[in-house]
């Protein structure tokens, strides 16, 4: 399992490839890899957004993410997990978060990925401040429930 | 003998600082810590609390040396 908080632009596909190369023990064992990438939009709540600053609580963020992945591992059979999350200044079209899961079967990979993302959204101490096109700044007040239609 | 109090995001801007050191006087809850450190401030009621980087209820009693953190609902991902 790897949890990474990063303050520079990252390429999720490269992260997956690199991490997979570092875990040769899962070779031949995994039949499913699920990948979720969260990317910054250029709009939110009816406004155009030109940038964002992501603050976090160093230490607690890693601790909570570790806990979330461990809780997932108790519920589903997975072989490995990679979670990468950006902090600092982020711009539209840049990746914010990556969750990649390796498991023997697709059900566990899909379910774990969803669980980790929803828990991350409600428990991992990150806070977004948006910068609108007129340079006005505003804190995002609350994450929406991902299961709500 | 003290408690470290930390604030994040919009709450940090509201209280105007990122941390406080409070003397440890014993028998204080997380809610007491927030109140003592911010006597003249109205704190939003959706604030969350953590002690030593774990989420806690506001009734939790703090110990000497604890790091108590307060912050708004999280918005990562």
Explained architecture:
The complex is a heterodimer of chains A (149) and B (77). By secondary structure, chain A is of the alpha+beta class. The model of chain A has no long low-confidence stretch (mean pLDDT 97). Chain A has a single domain, classed as Molybdopterin biosynthesis MoaE subunit (Aldehyde Oxidoreductase, domain 3, Alpha-Beta Complex), CATH 3.90.1170.40. Chain A contains 3 helices and 9 strands; from the N terminus they run βαβββαβββαββ. Chain A has helices spanning 12-21, 60-75, 106-123, and strands at residues 2-6, 32-39, 43-44, 47-56, 80-86, 88-90, 95-103, 126-132, 137-139. Chain B has 77 residues and is α+β, with helices and mostly antiparallel strands. Chain B has one domain: Roll (Ubiquitin-like (UB roll)). In chain B, 19% of the residues lie in helices and 29% in strands. Chain B is built from 2 helices and 5 strands; from the N terminus they run E-H-E-H-E-E-E. Chain B has helices spanning 9-15, 30-37; strands at 2-7, 19-23, 48-51, 54-55, 67-71. In chain B, strands 2-1-5-3-4 form a 5-stranded mixed β-sheet. In chain B, a hairpin with a 2-residue loop joins strand 3 and strand 4 (54-55).
Cα radius of gyration of chain A in angstroms: 16 Å
State the shape of chain B: globular
How far apart are the first and last residues' alpha carbons of chain B, in Å? 37 Å
Predict the CATH topology of chain A.
Aldehyde Oxidoreductase, domain 3
Low-confidence runs of chain B (pLDDT<50, min 5 residues)? Answer: none
Q: What is the 3D shape of chain A?
A: elongated
- Tell me about the largest β-sheet of chain A: 5 strands, antiparallel
Q: What's the rounded overall pLDDT mean of chain A? A: 97
Biggest interface goes to: A-B, 28 and 16 residues
Look at the structure and give the CATH class of chain B.
Alpha Beta
